[in-house]
Amino acid sequence: MTDDLVPGEDGLARPLWASTDPMLRDYYDTEWGMPVRDERGVFERLSLEAFQSGLSWRTILAKRPAFRAAFADFDPDVVAGFGDEDVARLLGDAGIVRNRAKIAATITNANATVALRADGGLADFVWSFRPADTPRPRTAAEVPTTSPESTALSKALRKRGFAFVGPTTMHALMEALGIVDTHLLGSHRRATSGIWPD
To answer: So where does this one cross the membrane (predicted)?
Structure first.
């Protein structure tokens, strides 16, 4: 076991970022990297990854209930219909990240998500960029922040009208959805998604 993995009181090994904070630990143990294949689930994570850009994931996770309330539980059909009054409401909502560009991108992406249904939908589109193999990092330094697939996904989504979908953000999305497994070797969560064997 490396210094980047910390055994918890329960005997389970977790990375440093998930080892002390109860909210992050619960997210790591139960959600991060588990397969998400429904449109709303993928749209929510795409949206939250965009809002996370430049901020800590803990900040976004703590605000997730407020984000869900503000964005109609990330129903793409509802968010696609948001207008100026909704933008003003969101900019006044202290429970979320009040960034005009990110709010506008979420509405733009909702419209793009609805449009993508004609070609199979957002979830299948994003999952079509699953690589042939997944990283096997032993240390935090070995965890990649981009990949050829996340770069290709970024370009493909931009062509479809999506915003705030850079290669780093898309790699984080792929990790969160279980498309790649970047759990450290030795973590109790390694290979638990059912997508990758080890």
So the answer is: none
Q: Please report how the helices 84-91 and 100-116 are oriented relative to each other, as an axis angle in degrees rounded to 10.
A: 130
Which positions are annotated as active-site residues? 27, 49, 57
Residues with pLDDT less than 70, the chain: 1-2
State in words which class domain 17-28+36-177 has: mainly alpha
159-192 pLDDT tens trace:
999 999 999 999 999 999 999 999 999 999 999 9
Given a contact cutoff of 8 angstroms between Cβ atoms, the answer to whether 90 and 96 are in contact is yes
- Cα–Cα distance between 174 and 138 in angstroms, integer? 19
Chain segment 80-103, per-residue pLDDT in tens: 999 999 999 999 999 999 999 999
* Surface-to-core class of residue 195, CB atoms within 10 Å of its CB (0-12 exposed, 13-18 middle, 19+ buried): middle
Q: Mention every residue, 6+ apart, whose C-beta is less than 8 A from residue 176.
A: 32, 33, 36, 45, 49
Nearest to 43, CA basis, from 97, 121, 98: 121
Strand partners, 6: 14
